[in-house]
């Protein structure tokens, strides 16, 4: 069983061994997190080249060497060569995180499927039991929480700060709970931010603050 956790990988060294579709997918998931990414493979996909450039990453156009994982925070093993995969596993120490795409039981971490809407992150994982189910559940969540949730979560953050700055503590908790309101969600989804803020200010008036 894996413990679910969110990691800050900014300025952390991430090593990807492999240059095919799995490695490319890993590069997609690393966009925007500020990690130092190194990829080792004699060849890589065209998309991987583009993604690596966007990450300001490094491509070592050669086979894996054991020193490649020195000081790595996370190592993704994404080749279809078992001998290479075993060599990477042998080079990693117990303090490093490793995910082997060919056999997750040989690693100590798993990637989760993530639906991100601004500051809202919803992660799904089946501990490797069924990647297909993970993808299906992610699709359902993407439908349940549309892109408009980005603006909604941003509005909630601003409204929360406004309440905390202007409402006494003994009254703020109840008001903060009211923010998770379907009416507010609909207003923001429809781009009616003025109506959303008017509702919040109405609640403040009702609370005599």
UniProtKB/TrEMBL annotation:
Domain of life: Bacteria
Catalytically driven reaction(s): precorrin-2 + NAD(+) = sirohydrochlorin + NADH + 2 H(+)
GO molecular function, one term: precorrin-2 dehydrogenase activity
Keywords: NAD, Oxidoreductase, Porphyrin biosynthesis
InterPro entries: Met8-like, NAD(P)-bd_dom_sf, SirC_C, Sirohaem_synthase_central, Sirohaem_synthase_N
Pathway in which the depicted protein is active: Porphyrin-containing compound metabolism; siroheme biosynthesis; sirohydrochlorin from precorrin-2: step 1/1
Pfam families in UniProt: NAD_binding_7 (PF13241), Sirohm_synth_M (PF14824)
Keyword presence, Lipid biosynthesis: no
Any one of the GO BP annotations: siroheme biosynthetic process
EC number(s) from the headed UniProt entry: 1.3.1.76
Residues covered by the Siroheme synthase central domain: 117-144
NCBIfam families assigned to the protein according to its UniProt record, in alphabetical order: cysG_Nterm
UniProt-recorded name of the protein: precorrin-2 dehydrogenase
Originating organism: Caryophanon latum
